[in-house]
Design a protein that fits this description.
Elements lengths: L4 E17 L2 E15 L2 E7 L12 H17 L9 H5 L6 H19 L3 H5 L5 E3 L2 E3 L5 H14 L4 E4 L6 H11 L5 E4 L9 H5 L8 E3 L7 H10 L4 E3 L6 H10 L4 E4 L1 H4 L2 H13 L4 E3 L6 H11 L31 E3 L12 H7 E8 L6
Parallel strand pairs: 5-6, 6-7, 7-8, 8-9, 9-10, 10-11
Antiparallel strand pairs: 1-2, 1-13, 2-3, 4-12
Helix pairs in contact: 1-3, 5-6, 9-11
């Protein structure tokens, strides 16, 4: 393929309700979209970076800079490349996985649309529907938390995930487990808010028969996770610690986790996500697809990934209405705890151009000729 142009579009997407985690609260998403043209066929990629570098080092302004000044110039000087070549072409640029995932996804979408193939088919999906869980932020009060959880339970979500932090952990988890009963899977996600001195608090969560404790300690403390895994009965899942297949294999073989959360943006794209999936499957470690409050563009691609065989746990691929009153695509709807995987070419959904125009806050277009080729 050959890139003819790239358009970067910023949109403002208000959330249905604020979403609070241990690293901050969001009431809206600033979304950066990449629309790439290869031979007259367009493809879309959604950047999952936040406006500030609080989830990881990347943020929206930085991603745009890296795309324009470092990634796109390297791709636009190549007259013909395969999608599998993108990672090696961009390898001289260190890190910046979310930026790389954005352009790789847009290229993959365009190429597959041109080929008349779906993301699901290309990645090797084996399921037509994906099991869905829901992620619940830190609430102002336990009563508010219980009301929100009860609503999701009634909607049919197959797993409840609670965000936790020091001081908001054992008691809210106890109350939610009492509300939902023993059978509905319950997990917690600390987003690395604890340290090694907090291990006894985390061990107290064993009482509630959790499916997993996600990323309790800092992302670079693999040894600490190994130590915690020996103390608690609940399986540990790593998120922020896993940025590559090598990271996943190292964490698994050292005993730091028994479950892996795969977020395509965090690991550099869907091709690396597939490699992590395969490596975990070889080691009998289940995976699930994490969410970053994606619009329908990112959600469509995540659903295709989550349809691979080793995604055996409910995924954070909630219905569009969980986050947005109006999405950038036709809304994804929860049915019997599942969402259907798009089967059309590319990501399988079309962008609502009217909604895109209404939500747009900025646009930057780059032609191939501007690079001097």
């Amino acid at each position: 393929m050959r890139i003819e142009s790239l358009t970067l579009i910023r949109v403002a997407m208000p959330l249905v309700r604020p979403f609070t985690t241990s690293f901050g609260s969001q009431s809206a998403r600033e979304v950066l979209l990449a629309c790439v043209d290869i031979g007259g066929t367009q493809g879309w990629g959604e950047c999952v970076a936040m406006s500030e570098p609080v989830y990881n080092a990347e943020y929206v302004d930085g991603v745009e800079h890296v795309l324009v000044h470092h990634l796109l110039p390297r791709l636009m000087v190549v007259d013909d490349f395969a999608i599998e070549d993108v990672a090696s072409i961009l390898r001289p640029v260190l890190g910046h996985h979310m930026a790389k995932a954005t352009i790789e996804t847009a290229l993959l979408d365009a190429w597959l649309r041109k080929e008349g193939r779906s993301f699901a088919e290309y990645l090797g999906a084996t399921k037509e529907r994906v099991r869905c869980g829901v992620s619940v932020g830190i609430a102002a009060t336990i009563d508010e938390l219980l009301a929100e959880v009860d609503g999701y339970r009634q909607q049919g979500y197959q797993r409840i995930k609670l965000k936790i932090q020091p001081g908001w952990d054992v008691q809210p988890v106890r109350q939610v487990r009492a509300l939902i009963g023993p059978d509905l899977p319950l997990t917690v996600d600390a987003n690395r808010a604890y340290d090694r001195q907090s291990m006894r608090t985390l061990a107290a969560l064993d009482e509630f028969d959790l499916q997993m404790i996600e990323q309790p300690l800092p992302e670079d403390d693999i040894a600490g996770h190994v130590q915690l895994a020996q103390l608690v009965a609940t399986p540990l899942c790593l998120d922020e610690s896993i940025c590559s297949t090598l990271d996943a294999v190292d964490a698994i073989e050292r005993g730091a986790c028994r479950i892996v959360n795969i977020k395509p943006g965090r690991v550099g794209g869907y091709l690396e996500s597939k490699r992590i999936h395969d490596a975990c499957a070889e080691r009998a470690v289940p995976v699930w697809c994490g969410g970053m409050l994606e619009t329908g563009i990112g959600r469509a691609a995540n659903l295709a990934l989550a349809a691979l065989p080793n995604f055996t746990l409910p995924n954070d691929t909630s219905a569009s209405a969980r986050y947005y009153r109006r999405d950038l695509t036709a809304p994804f709807v929860l049915q019997d705890g599942h969402i259907t995987v798009p089967q059309g070419p590319g990501i399988g959904v079309d962008v609502d151009l009217d909604m895109l125009q209404d939500a747009m806050t900025g646009r930057r277009h780059i032609e191939r000729s501007a690079t001097g080729r």
